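The following block was generated as part of the benchmark described in Methods. Ligand: coproporphyrinogen III.
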Amino acid sequence: MSRYIEAVWCRPVDRLPIWLMRQAGRYLPEYRAIRERHTFMNMIQTPEIAAEITLQPIRRFGLDAAILFSDILTVASALGSKLEFVEGKGPVIDNPIRTESDLTLLSQTPIRDSLHYVRECIELLQSGPLGNTPLIGFAGAPFTVASYMIQGGSSKDLTLVKRLMLTHPNIMADLIDRLVLATADYVSMQIEAGVDGIQLFDTWAIHLSMPEFEEWVMSPLKAVLNRIRNPRRVPITIFTRGSAVFWNRLATLPVQCLSLDWQVDIKGVAGLAPSHIALQGNLDPMVLTATPTVLSSQVTRILQSAGNRPGFIFNLGHGITPDVPIDMVTRLVEQVQAYQPVYEA
Ligand code: CP3
């Protein structure tokens, strides 16, 4: 068994596992070399390319888990969002959902047909090149994917999404219901294809009040988790921004692990979280752009706060950014992989 899988089930490990959100990406020259010749959509839709990019950070750093190279917005695109990734702007959707008639135009094609290339990429990776490194599959949670489909792209404050939620909750609910079905099917397909773990991303939960969080994050997540077909009991992790406020609600979900954002006091959560829930996190990705001394002391703080708890996986508190120097990542991985937890008797 890999250390990632042992830790996610809260079993002891000889040294801590580490992987990084967005570990395949623009900070890697070998990623940029492929990116120069392809659009982002083309990269994720070609199984051979997506598999190669998935492997890049594993080869370079010897991370303890690989994450499938794809994006959470493939599901939006499968449902009919006209999605493009624009240099300097991120995802842009040309036909955002604002009215009931926008909803009727959405596609009914089963996810397993529209996203067959994801299955093919997983099968390719699991046919040998990963060796013993576990492969994490993922999906965006309904609220976060809905946010992009409504807003039409990235946004600081989700103004249009919140307005739609408040003035036309029926449209929001219809979209969320469709996304619950699509997400559960998508995750089930990834499990069937052979992933070893799943991570759900509900990044934009941070914009919600507690009652809104219950309605638009907790309920849809419960519905997704109920519908996922998971005969192999593949462990499931949930990441949100805003975990300082929401982590104890998320800990009541039938998931194995909480991925904590960088704002959370990880020592506090490690002391309070139920012992059957693993924790993952939570270095501020900005620290990777500071000095080696700052990095080392921040990593030590996290290791001392949570490293001796059965069920801890080191990660960032959000995705790695394109400006991170590679040697800082090497240092991070070396320091974490040298850490041998001491468990209380
Ligand atoms: O973690 C991994 O390495 C796996 C791949 C992965 C990507 N995106 C690759 C990517 C994963 C798990 C995601 C998740 C994702 N995508 C989230 C949830 C987590 C988070 O970061 O909050 C969200 C909100 C998205 C939507 C998205 N995709 C945005 C906002 C952007 C633009 C931002 C940016 O960095 O440009 C993307 C594009 C994207 N997804 C890139 C990568 C490597 C950059 C694409 C490029 O090369 O131009």
